[in-house]
Amino acid sequence: MLRKLVLLPLLCILLYSCKSQKLPIKASTAIETKDKKDSKLKPYDKVVTKEALSDQGLFTTHTVDEKLYFEIPDSLLGKDMLLVSRIAKVPSGFGGGYVNAGSKVNEQVVRWIKRGNYVDLKVISFENESDENSPISKSVEANNFFPILYSTAIAAKSKDSTNLVIEVTDLFTKDIDAINGVSSRLRKEYKIKKLDGTRSYIESAAAFPKNVEVKHVMTYDAEEPPERDQAGTLTLLMNQSMVLLPDDKMQPRLADDRVGWFTSKKYNYDSEQLKADDYKIIRRWKLIPKDIEAYKRGELVEPVKPIIYYLDPATPLKWRPYFKQGIEDWNKAFEVAGFKNAIIAKDPPSAEEDPEFSPEDVRYSVIRYVASTTRNAVGPSVSDPRTGEIIESDVIWYHNHLRSYRNRFMIEAGAQNPAARTLETPEAEIGEMMRMVIAHEVGHALGLPHNMKASSAYPTDSLRIASFTQKYGLTPSIMDYARVNYVAQPGDDGVRYIRMMGPYDLYAINWGYRYIPEASSSIEEKPTLDKWILEKAGNPWYEFGSANGIDPHSQTESLGDDNIKASSYGLANMKKVVPNFINWTTKDGYGYDDLSEVYGELARLWRGYINHVVTNVGGVYETIKTSDQNGVVYQPVPKEVQQEAVEFLNDNAFTTPQWLLNRDILDRIEADGAIEQVKSVQIYALSNLLSDKRLTRMIENEQKNGASAYSAVTLMNDLRKGIFNELYQGQKTDAYRRNLQRKYVEIATSYLGELEKDNQEILISDVLPLMRGELTQLRSDLNSRKNNSRDTLTRYHYADLIARIDAGFKVD
């Protein structure tokens, strides 16, 4: 939780965050004034020959043969520029499929600085700051010496000597860590030996008024590339954007963890506290009212510079209206902040309308439509780390993303909504889904992170009510993952099935974007910002939380305030749709690929429902507060809720899911594998449930709250009775349950194995004696009941479990 900022350090922040925010090094040192003789420089025409392909912009790029030159005006030396490194194209399977085209790998401020007959590209940090007139500023500068990313000799000067020409080929063809797309982890994973210079080259360079773009191919020798057919080679297309940062700096806004924003962290060394004072600023667009007096009167006023998104020329015409709606939906939130027409969606201009238009130009923010099988959409942005001002944003929509929504709509709404019972989802429904995905990604581009706590604000059963869902949506925030209303049941007529913008979104945009004319600094804004938060305190509609694996109210894809009930509703719907999958996914003359895909996704969603319930066990609710607010931040999930969660898991996760094992489907899509699929879901849930961190939290909770806590011992007893129910009832165990029971013993005995590993975290905790006691009890029960079953394989199975437990105890 963000620590409460006290007055003195914040006054320091005020002095340096807006009106006179200083550079980390003095501007006078940015350009060396004592030049060496230029005798070694070549004539301009000998460097920039007639064959050069040149492009004028922020600075001019010249491509001569296979060499790239930058012609940099003296006026840009020492200026702050943002160097953004992205992967433009990736090989199949790169990063496990989680790194897509467009992924940003680094973002850093740089300056071109002249040094005699050389030009250095320095990386500049604004994280540490102090007043340049303060004595400590010398120490701050000395202990934050800026690294040189690249250095090159001046090749020539322009004829009027106002521009320097430098060759930058090596910057983009050598293996420079700060701008390459392969992390150290992936280098190890793919066993990369080296960058092959003969297969690495600059593909293109383009200059625009405020930025320069360079695309370059990087090819590595790799013993184990992501896919076997890649022949020991890993090739990426990188895109480097160099963006000029504004001289007119925006006034930063201090972040507060109670309202979710993307942030930048700072350290103020002028603080009179006994430490460097750390604080965060939010990332947002610079919106200033055209008419401040009218704005003060409460009138809606247009901003001086609105946020404009252009559609990619590649966007299919039928989807353009939905894209535009998704963008301009945010105007509803900006109106709460006092702005009208703050965000505008436009079709791509024709060559006649704007001959300079290019998605690569930082002056244009674009919703890019990418022809890719990737099922995703992302909303990245480029921001000024000095102030948090968002400079530009390109939302990326991958063509195949609709495929995931089509499948999910069928699985989660097919039981209730006839429109979902086909792979040819009607345009009205699929268009609405697309609209809301775009709105979600634009929300990221406006500065909002995921708010996974939002969905827990609404009572679960309210999602079955048409009037409620049509007015308030599925969750208070479109920044939550709540894609389809799986809570609604057959007969719940008129309910909304697709997420939409909610009250939290309006609140967050007002908090981050409302112009406060009476405040001339970040610190002067803070009392007003705090007041807005306290006005909403206690109302779960306006709370923020990220998914941390501990709080059951902050989970991806969960719905409602009772995720045990929600998972029960979702499971009931799944049981209804499975028997219809063949009819809904197949057509004459084609195979069963779609059936297999939808069935597989259903199994993954089932696992998600189960995990939502698991998180309640040993769970802790988190409500972010500052010290002036009443109540605690962390509160354990009530005992009765945890007991209900374990009952659900015994009944729905660990009991063999006969409803899922539909022979009509399985015999069409696979020769075998059903056991493994069920096993993977059950083992994931069981391993998660019996993690040492969860058990440790439960033991700690019992220590603090005594009998009112759901204890770890009770959990183990309840699980054993559920997972080994056949043992206690003298019944036959099926293959699925035998797998599950073996995994239970494996997890428990694995803790005993920590004795040999000298894992101090486990050895000094109560988890080890807990598991030893549980195994002792289970071994006793197995010995006394192993012959009660008439099934031979069941008896063999029990004998095997006893042997496994004995083997585990041999560690002692």
Task: Give the gist of this structure.
The protein is built from 27 helices and 23 strands.
Would you kindly provide a written description of the structure presented here, covering whatever features stand out?
- The protein is built from 27 helices and 23 strands.
- The chain has 812 residues and is an alpha+beta fold.
- Among the domains are: 29-244, no CATH class; 292-561, no CATH class.
- 36% of the residues lie in helices and 17% in strands.
- A hairpin with a 2-residue loop joins strand 2 and strand 3 (67-73).
- Strands 1, 2, 3, 4, 5, 6, 8, 9, 10, 11, 12 and 13 form a twelve-stranded antiparallel sheet that branches. Strands 16, 17, 18, 19, 20 and 21 form a six-stranded mixed sheet that branches.
